[in-house]
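Lab intake sheet, docking and co-folding queue.

SAMPLE TYPE: protein with bound small molecule
LIGAND NAME: pyridoxal-5'-phosphate
LIGAND FORMAT: SMILES
REQUESTED OUTPUT: full 3D complex as structure tokens
PRIORITY: normal
SUBMITTED BY: R.K., bench team

The fields below were copied directly from the construct record.
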Amino acid sequence: MTVAAVRTTRIIHVRQDSGQTVMKSLTPENAGLSLMGQRTSAPPISWLMQLALSRQDIISLAVGFTDNASLPVRETRDLIEDLLSSNATAPDILQYGTGTGNPDLRSLVADRTMRADKHACNVMDAGGVHATPAQDIYAADATIITNGSQQLLYMINECLCDPGDIVLVEDPTYFVFLSLGQSHGIEFRGVQLDIHGASHRHLEEVLENAKMNGTLPRVKYLYTPTYFQNPTGITTPFSRKIRLLETLRNYEKDAGHPLYLVEDAAYRELRFSGEDTPSSLASSLARDRVIYTGTFSKPFATGIRVGFGILPHHLHETIARIKGNHDFGTSNLLQHILRRALVTGKYDAHLQTLQERYSFKSQLMLEALQNYFPNSVSYRIPKGGLYFWVEIPNAGTGLNSDVFASALKQNVLYLPGDFCFADDPTRTKPDNHMRISFGGATDYSITNGIKRIGNALRECRIN
Ligand SMILES: Cc1ncc(COP(=O)(O)O)c(C=O)c1O
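RESULT FIELD (auto-filled):
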């Protein structure tokens, strides 16, 4: 029997030895997919997104989109016009760029991150730790520009992990990161979160267990979104970052290789109250151990897919080669737009508008939660980012739960919290949370969406 041709995404035509052609369903196994192709399942949120798009009457507070109304349309139009106005320089902008990114933009990024860390180091941190960031860690040649920070997260796995390797993640964490790791065949172990981020005590327990059961050599890094964490909104103070770095360092000898800290600062600039806190790059333990990922996408325009990383030099080279294989470099035009937005002050002006907008929207959501949610649920008030993380006592919130069915009946969507917990065989996955985003929702949807979820909860006798 030979496969004659593939005709649709789900059906193949198979010619039998008799010459007759029959139709057969395509499965991951008979479609000729690689093991990675087979492991790469649809992201859990795609079903929710499709549902929201297909039904006008649904309010979706599930996805982490950014505010549509305040996207910098006029600013971007002006920037492009400006960039392409000179026949002498425009062709360079429309040409391939360099693999690691525009050198001026890399300098700007490295310098901006160092200035932010220096400033934050001057402000009293929880725990009162002081540090002096080392200038050479924030070097332009340690910096790489990527297609959003998402591409860098992907390449970090490609650079450090083989299938079967272990990555430590906060419990809960950024759920798309879990999908990405699943695709790479990575196993996860959860590290408990407290109000100051990943618990260094639990990290030690997890590493000790790995040492005891012989899996420590497979542990490669700890992934931690430290600013207004997606999904909980928790920010990790500098003192805790140092503890995490120390704990990782203590297990390196037994692991037989460095244990890196991947600090995802995607929401750092979306802070609307409180002071900034230094990144782990500012620690004296950062050298050769911290991979810092950031983005311009959420604080400017998500459609301008420009993210960045500051990496140990020995990893920078490998990631740069991987990046070359991916795409020869991030879009030169988009990088020029960002560079110009930064040097003209348009980026910072827009950031301020956004911070004010999210401050307003989070307040609106808070008022709706206070007005319409039962008293028994709990949540933390975020100081930045795009999310509220709500805990429901004694009731599941997953796709098959009564609460989810009731919310669907009320025409509202939230992100079930269990999406954000890794498949960690060492503990039961909690299923009584919801992530609710005020990022992309209109003011009307925020108030009415929360009202509808409140009705759904009461319908399930949660008071
Ligand atoms: C925690 C976190 N990190 C990284 C990203 C990737 O964002 P981008 O690729 O737009 O930089 C996201 C997007 O939602 C996120 O929530």
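REVIEWER NOTE: The two ends are 62 Å apart (CA to CA).
SIGN-OFF: pending second check by T.M.
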